[in-house]
Amino acid sequence: MRACSLLHDLLVDSARRRPHHVAIVCGGASIDYGALVRRATGLACALVEGGVERGDRVVIFAENSIDTVIAFWAALVANAVPVILHPQTMPAKLAYVLADSDARALVVDSHLAPAVPESPRPQVVIEIGTAPWADALARHDAAPARRCLDIDLAALIYTSGSTGEPKGVMLTHRNMLAANASISEYLGIREDDVILCALPLAFDYGLYQMIMAIAAGARVVLARSFAFPSDVLKLVSRERVTGFPGVPTMFATMLAMKSIASFDLSSVRYVSNTAAALPARHIHALRELFPRAQLFSMYGLTECKRCTYLPPDQLDRRPDSVGIAIPNTELWIVDEHDRRLGPGEVGQLVIRGATVMCGYWNKPEATATKLRAGVLPGERVLYTGDLCRLDDEGYLYFVARMDDVIKSRGEKVPPKAVEAALLDIAGIREAAVLGVPDELLGHAIKAFVVLEPDATLDAAAIQRECRARLESFMVPSEIVLRDALPKSDNGKIQKTELT
After folding, report:
1. pTM of the prediction?
2. What is the pLDDT of residues 97-110, one digit of tens each?
3. Domains, the chain
């Protein structure tokens, strides 16, 4: 078998081996590998005829669905770069990404099309479910000529940083193939696996569930979301799911369900968790819920996909550790002078390996802060911005983030973006946002607000206004009204004095 040098080789090779095996199940529908390749190729041909060329960005603004998966692989077959956006993306952020990525094409769910701005508007717009969409999928053309190298971009994944302005993480085919191989190795992914994906495909953790399954010739059970956990657990039981990836919010919701014992989850052979550490009591409860499963605790960043994993046999001994470097990756800790630190010393985590991004799209200054000179001449390694420490045996422990980004519900929430939305509300004078530890959310978003003298707003009204302006995971869980906020001599709000 030839080596896979481009990401979509994974799909093509699995289709060659298992053309009639079901690749994806979603919403009562399914598609096998042969049909998935044919439809992705048909859509790729339509994109190319519309003017999409090598390296062009194709934004995919859609729900988790078989069609979204088709669009992702189609963009790659067309030698382009897929950019998947969450269906709850607000219009302003959608417009920003379309402009920043200079998207040549947009694939959009029909019910989301009204949210697409008139400007900037990509040259090619295809609505899922329309006649042009159906015509494209029904084509039987040969795939467009293969033009990419493994060092070309395979995806842009937009993630928000401390400034609140989304950054497009540039990942090459080589990056994504390396990540797939490494994670699949320690999880032991195989072709008879059935992998649940109830995470957004716009979230790299969700996207890689689909990629890993496709690479192995396995089956993905794709859920729209985890909003209705009973429905997802019924899927797990009915489809005999073997791989259950989640985040602490999902697991906490499941464990709080009174009916949880009524679901047959005996098919699950591994459970993986990332985004935040699981409380010890949840680890114990998950083991009881999935008695035959190995439990993997993991830690990573979009900028390198995954940093570490904790082998399941170490969970009892080191429940607070995020583990060891994933296969084919190195890590170390440095101080503010870039000197390597020893066991027990806290410093910034540095990652070296084939999964490290090649930079942020259109953001050379932000790239320079993250990617710095590495071990070999010309090499760049990732300075994560996370404070960590290592124990005597090389196991990593996360301490804190060097910036103030809040990770809530598995999503990164920039406080400045929430503060900007609050200050956009008539009657609010000042606002400060921070994260507070929460067993369910990882961190809850807490907002401190000072009103104008004549304002009549209360906390409930402010939350309603936030829901109209922000994606759901960015809406503050708690709003505290204050007469004033503590400030330094230069007028800067002192968040460390807020409680």
Report:
1. 0.85
2. 999 999 999 999 99
3. 9-225 (3.40.50.12780), 314-403 (2.30.38.10), 406-497 (3.30.300.30)
